[in-house]
């Protein structure tokens, strides 16, 4: 178990060589594993009784793990919101593991706590929760002018914490909303409400909102789905009508959720209008910007998210468009004290000194997690290494790739656009002349195309359902992607369609 300094250095050099070779191979390596049927045989077996030489184990990583992994870091991957990680973020994970800070309490991670505080401040400035103090310059982004909350007077000092991802961030935001909106809910649970608590989100909501409704104890019927328009954006008038009907039925509305980048098509809800509705009805306003929040780094495109600065809480996922290695999510609140009121605990077995020292940075008091990893380090190093301008270039380029694909689709008689490009996402489908108007057969064809493209491994796309029809979903998620990779993907789609246009 104990290694000498020389052994650590030798092993580290070989690991660095492996990482470097991996990044170089991303241009050509097949994205998906060829034969995943024998993975239990390869990686299973009984618990080893004796140890194995670490260099022999590294060789197994090279020959067994990597060939059987899914290479979503590829520039030819146009699937879900999975990025190519920043190189410095990869090494940041190793550093964080080395010092192995427990970020629950300031005393066990003092430097890390202040790094996380800085990251949260940058992200809060990014969404517009507050300007830098007078006389200072922003380190990462140009913050917008501070705007007061237009909903309840929940507070004025923004704060937040890192989370494992958007699911826990969304849960955290809505848990705060429930606690702040219904007195007594923390001590008595939802029975403290004089009716069923309900929140509102569009039919395009991420599945984490289903889980949130369950974990909050309000059930799936407490998650009220609101109709969308032809662009998959929530309809404000339908939202207001549903709030009024629910109140008349004795329910207790407590939160409106806006989406800044839906999973299927990248659609952005009318965030400003949702803020106004939340204000009129005195409801907490949460924005799920897990994917789309990074567009605020772009001066050209940041206005796409106008209205997010009026939210009471926001979900961001740096492990998505910020290209930080998994896992790194964040929950931001306009009022940091609301987080603490929701999650604060005082266990009797914890020293009073823990609570007395830097109590505003005992981060287990502000979120779900107890023991916490120093995930903020890879965000902090990536933002400082790349800078706002570097991120802006990547975001603008990825948005341009979706526009480029949309133009190719518009000029191709065998392709049909199924959405507008939004936040790097674009949905389309291949339509052979013989299948025009045969929607069920076209739906089946898109599925066969995706499966064939995945099996071949030269590119990767996903499918989804939009407007009741199966679509091919493109998402520019890698900072390595260029137009030539989009062209290759389209070639693969057409080749798959030609090979499988008839059912087997």
The major β-sheet equals:
7 strands, mixed
Structural class: alpha/beta
**Proportion of residues in extended strands:** 5-15%
Order of helices and strands: HHHEHHEHHEHEHEHEEEHHHEEHEEH
Arrangement of strands in the largest sheet? 2-8-7-6-5-3-4
CATH topology of the domain at 149-359: Aspartate Aminotransferase, domain 2
CATH architecture title of the domain at 149-359: 3-Layer(aba) Sandwich
Radius of gyration: 24 Å
Q: What gap, in angstroms, lies between the N and C termini?
A: 55 Å
The number of E-state strands comes to 12
Helix content range of the residues, please? 40-55%
Q: What's the CATH first level of the domain at 149-359?
A: Alpha Beta
Please tell me the overall pLDDT: 91
Shape: globular
> How many H/I helices?
15
Uncertain parts: 131-155
CATH superfamily of the domain at 149-359: Type I PLP-dependent aspartate aminotransferase-like (Major domain)
Q: What's the SSE blueprint?
A:
Elements: H1 5-25, H2 39-43, H3 54-65, E1 77-78, H4 87-99, H5 110-127, E2 159-163, H6 166-181, H7 185-188, E3 197-202, H8 208-215, E4 223-226, H9 236-248, E5 252-259, H10 271-281, E6 284-288, E7 313-316, E8 329-333, H11 336-343, H12 352-356, H13 376-410, E9 415-417, E10 425-430, H14 439-456, E11 460-466, E12 469-475, H15 483-500
Parallel strand pairs: 1-11, 3-4, 3-5, 5-6, 6-7
Antiparallel strand pairs: 2-8, 7-8, 9-10, 10-12, 11-12
Helix pairs in contact: 1-3, 4-13, 5-13, 6-8, 6-11, 9-10, 14-15
């Amino acid at each position: 178990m104990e290694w000498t300094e020389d052994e650590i250095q030798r092993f580290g050099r070989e690991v660095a060589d492996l990482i470097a070779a991996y990044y170089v191979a991303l241009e050509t390596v097949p994205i998906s594993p060829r034969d995943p049927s024998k993975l239990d045989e390869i990686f299973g077996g009984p618990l080893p009784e004796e140890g194995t030489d670490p260099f022999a184990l590294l060789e197994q990583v090279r020959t067994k793990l990597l060939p059987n992994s899914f290479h979503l870091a590829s520039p030819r991957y146009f699937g879900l919101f999975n990025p190519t990680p920043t190189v410095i973020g990869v090494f940041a994970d190793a550093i964080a593991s080395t010092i192995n800070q427990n970020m629950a309490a300031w005393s066990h991670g003092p430097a890390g706590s202040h790094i996380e505080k800085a990251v949260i401040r940058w992200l809060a400035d990014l969404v517009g929760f507050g300007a830098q103090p007078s006389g200072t310059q922003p380190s990462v982004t140009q913050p917008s002018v501070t705007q007061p909350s237009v909903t309840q007077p929940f507070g004025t000092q923004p704060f937040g914490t890192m989370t494992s991802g958007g699911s826990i961030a969304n849960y955290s935001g809505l848990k705060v909303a429930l606690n702040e909106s219904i007195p007594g809910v923390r001590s008595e649970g939802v029975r403290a409400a004089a009716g069923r608590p309900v929140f509102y989100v569009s039919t395009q909501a991420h599945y984490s909102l289903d889980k949130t409704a369950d974990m909050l104890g309000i059930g799936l019927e407490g998650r009220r789905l609101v109709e969308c328009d032809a662009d998959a954006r929530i309809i404000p008038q339908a939202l207001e009508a549903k709030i009024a009907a629910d109140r008349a039925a004795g329910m207790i509305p407590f939160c409106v959720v806006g989406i800044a980048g839906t999973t299927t098509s990248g659609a952005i809800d009318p965030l400003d209008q949702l803020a106004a509705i939340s204000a009129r009805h005195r409801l907490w306003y949460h924005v799920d910007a897990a994917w789309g929040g990074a567009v605020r780094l772009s001066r050209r495109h940041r206005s796409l998210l106008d209205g997010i600065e009026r939210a009471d809480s926001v979900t961001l996922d740096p492990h998505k468009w910020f290209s930080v290695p998994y896992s790194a999510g964040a929950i931001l609140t306009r009022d940091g004290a609301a987080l603490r009121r929701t999650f604060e605990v005082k266990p009797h077995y914890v020293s009073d000194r823990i609570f007395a020292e830097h109590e505003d940075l005992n981060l287990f008091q502000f979120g779900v997690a107890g023991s916490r990893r120093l995930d903020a380090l890879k965000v902090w190093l990536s933002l400082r290494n790349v800078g706002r301008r570097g991120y802006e270039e990547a975001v603008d380029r990825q948005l341009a790739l979706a526009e480029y694909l949309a133009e190719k689709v518009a000029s191709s008689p065998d392709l049909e656009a199924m959405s507008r490009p939004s936040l790097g996402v674009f949905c389309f489908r291949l339509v052979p002349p013989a299948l025009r108007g045969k929607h069920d057969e076209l739906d089946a064809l898109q599925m066969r195309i995706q499966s064939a493209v995945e099996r071949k491994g030269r590119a990767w796309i996903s499918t989804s359902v939009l407007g009741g029809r199966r679509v091919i979903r493109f998402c520019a998620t890698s900072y390595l992607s260029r137009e030539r990779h989009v062209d290759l993907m389209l070639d693969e789609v057409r080749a798959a369609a030609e090979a499988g246009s008839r059912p087997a």
